[in-house]
Amino acid sequence: MPHLAVISASVRTNNNSRRVALFFQTYIREHKLGTVELLDLQEYNFPVFEERLKYQQNPTQQVLDFTGKIQQADGILMVTPEYNGGYPASLKNVVDLLYEEWRRKPIAIATVSDGSFGGTQVITSLQFILWKIRAWVVPAMFPVPKVQESFDPEGNPTDKAGTERRAKTFTDEWLWCIEAKKRMEKE
Question: What structural domains does the chain harbor?
Fold first, then answer.
């Protein structure tokens, strides 16, 4: 059973990304897809990026703990909002903090917005930086338009059946990539 990490990328007060991150945490547990850990960047409150972890003289325990959780995860799900066509600085900050830890890590992307496009404009720029650091970006995406109407603050979808159908297709692709990576590493 894979160990999965779900990153809630927004650090805004009352952010809506957390709703979708909580949904996936529950979905993964209820469907026994693996063990799952929620990494909420709002709770970490990392300082602005100064240097990659490998070049830091005295990294904080918080940075080391986060790094360990990324290393231990077989796959990562990044749940990010779209702010003015881009992803939040908090996500770029944590991506830049690490490097080798992202290499060939299967990363799935879920995007959220309060508008009707579901954060789809952020996907290309996020994919590009993840490819640049040699992460394995899962080809399936999970955009969520009008997130405040689609999920309550605890992560419960308003259309549970429809959302779970979409989530199954999305997580199946992510889990396939995780399994493929494991098989490739055995050879």
Answer: 3-186 (3.40.50.360)
